[in-house]
Amino acid sequence: MNVFFERYPERLEVPMSDGGSLAVHRYAAPSTAAPVVLEVTPYRKECGLGYGWKLAERGYHYCSADVRGFGGSRGGYSGVLSEREIQDYAELIEWIARQPFCSGQVATIGGSYNGASQMLVAARRPKGLVCIAPLYAPVDFYRDWNWRGGIVSFCDWGMTYFRCNQAATLRSGLRFYYSDLLSQRVDNDAYRKRSAEYVLPQIHVPALLGGGWNDYFLRGTIRAFERIPSSRRLVVGPWGHGGNEYMAEILPWLDWWLTGKGKDPVANPRVRLFRSGSNEWIERNNWFNPKRAQWREWSPFAVATDAYMPPNFSGIPLPRNIRAAFPPNSGFAHWPELTTADSAPFAGKTVIDGPPALEAFVDAGPVGDYECHARLSVVQPDGRCTQLTEGRLLASHREFDLARSTTNSDGYPIVPWHTHARAERPDPAGYTRLCLEINPICHCFCPGDRLRLGLSLVRADEQDVPATARIGPRTRVLLPLTTGLEA
User: Fold this and answer.
1) DSSP bridge partners of 461
2) Which of 16, 144, 159, 258 could form a disulfide with 20 if both were Cys (CB 3.0 to 4.6 A apart)?
């Protein structure tokens, strides 16, 4: 017999208030009346077989539950992160807290989708919930998940429905995800009510936020840490999406909040970051304050520069040395570089620590709309080039709300909050200003390293012929540095 199934977990069926039910696997701790660690997932509860018994051996009951409409959970399915799904989650927490095997304390864990749902349920404050650990999780269903910069980005998630095993969920899920939701290209209530972004201030249990510099949902991890008012810890490592690297953080987190053992994980320092370049872990108490940072401006293009604008990226080779653990249609690090510019070499060790900002000026002439993709990379003296971060923006979605943006001491939107409320055609007779949101980085440049900006434009109107745009010399990159770019 496969080792995973030598000790199969106990199966529970938990009734919901509307007549539905959730199927749960319980990995029993050696003692009764112990704390429970809970994960609720659309990826099937059996995913807990890899670490369920490890948590049980540590003294916790581990429960893994199917979202309704998946696996053994029953009831009508209402789409991704629906009101009913989050209500189920809250009812399940309170049901578990009342059971004889539980001490009355419940912690939730899980990454990606399972992290987004944790934040939504924590805002409801169910009885018994003690702490949460959302890892590499999106907080904005529009901006993080489906329409990065107004550009469709993570559409392959719908394939999850083919693993749900219930025919009704397959049909309704695909219809909802692709027809009802993704056909709407502007932000609206359908996206917002599935977004933890709007309830983060209501979370009052301790939160462990974990992410990776190469993770597509890094933006959500940082934003959750910035906006959750309760005790919280942030860990960002040299990882992509998923993996078990976080168990070294999760276990002491659970021990402290559920049993009081170990060291307070939110006492100074409460932020732990991996700094690439020097390949070291650094610790501090806060994330980043753009108003107190030292900003240095870099102008990549001294004169107006022609930029080839294809009708799509098909057939154009990708650059080498791109670090990303995502499939091509996820939108992360899988686009070619059509126009590049390198900085002068760094004269000494220089740390970029925080979110860079890119203000691009593009004259695309009569092109009705276009995507702007930007990548920042480090180029070492031997020519090796490695991506550090990236951002993107649909030109017609360039409108941003300055009041909701993160600004520096000069009032510039370092992290712009694009409204995505309407489409506005780019200027057909001059330069259009684009302020892109760029993912943060923590990197130490060594002497001789250069910073590379890769900028690619691709048509997003209904024409199928290439065009030529111009990138204006006012285009600039703002960098939060400890020392500046040397001439």
Assistant:
1) none
2) 16
**Quick one: 281 exposed, middle or buried, by C-beta within 10 A (0-12, 13-18, 19+)?**
exposed
Whole-number pLDDT of residue 432: 98
User: Cα–Cα distance between 97 and 144 in angstroms, integer?
Assistant: 32
Residue 407 CA, chain-centre distance (Å), reads 21
Cα 288 to Cα 295: distance, rounded to the nearest angstrom: 13
Looking up tokens 């080839």 gives 308
Confidence grade of residue 326 (pLDDT, cut at 50, 70, 90): low
Q: How far apart are CA 173 and CA 153, in angstroms?
A: 18
Tokens of 110: 């899980």
Above pLDDT 70, what percent of the chain? 94
**pLDDT > 60? residue 324:** no
Q: Looking at residue 322, what is its pLDDT? A: 65
Separation between Cα atoms, residue 239 and residue 135, nearest integer Å: 12
218: closest CA among 207, 226, 228, 230? 226
CA atoms of 325 and 213, how far apart (whole Å): 11
Residue type, 406: T
Largest CA distance in the chain: 73
- Only one residue has tokens 């939060």, namely 480
Whether the per-residue pLDDT at 436 is higher than 60: the answer is yes
Give CA–CA dist 35/251, Å, rounded.
13
Is residue 390 within a helix (H) or strand (E), and if so which, with residue range? strand 385-394
**Count helices and strands in the chain by DSSP H and E runs:** 7, 26
pLDDT at 487 over 50: no
Q: Give the residues across from 385 on adjacent strands.
A: 379
Cis amide leading into 345 (omega within 30): no
Q: What is the pLDDT of residues 295-310, one digit of tens each?
A: 999 999 999 999 999 9
Give the residue among 416, 419, 370, 373 at the shortest CA–CA distance from 396.
Answer: 370
Walk me through the domains of the chain, giving residue ranges and CATH numbers: 3-284 (3.40.50.1820), 295-480 (2.60.120.260)
Name 58's Cβ contacts closer than 8 Å, sequence gap at least 6. Answer: 251, 254, 255
What is the number of other CB atoms lying within 10 angstroms of the CB of residue 268? 10
User: What is the model's pLDDT at position 84?
Assistant: 98
Q: CB-based contacts of 398: which residues, under 8 Å, 6+ apart?
A: 418, 424, 426, 432, 433, 434, 435
Q: What is the pTM of this model?
A: 0.94
Which band of pLDDT confidence, cut at 50, 70 and 90, is reported for residue 134? very high
pLDDT at position 485, please?
39
DSSP conformational letter for 183 = T
User: Does the structure show a pLDDT above 60 at 331?
Assistant: no
Please provide the distance, in angstroms rounded to a whole number, between the alpha carbons at the two ends of the chain. Answer: 66
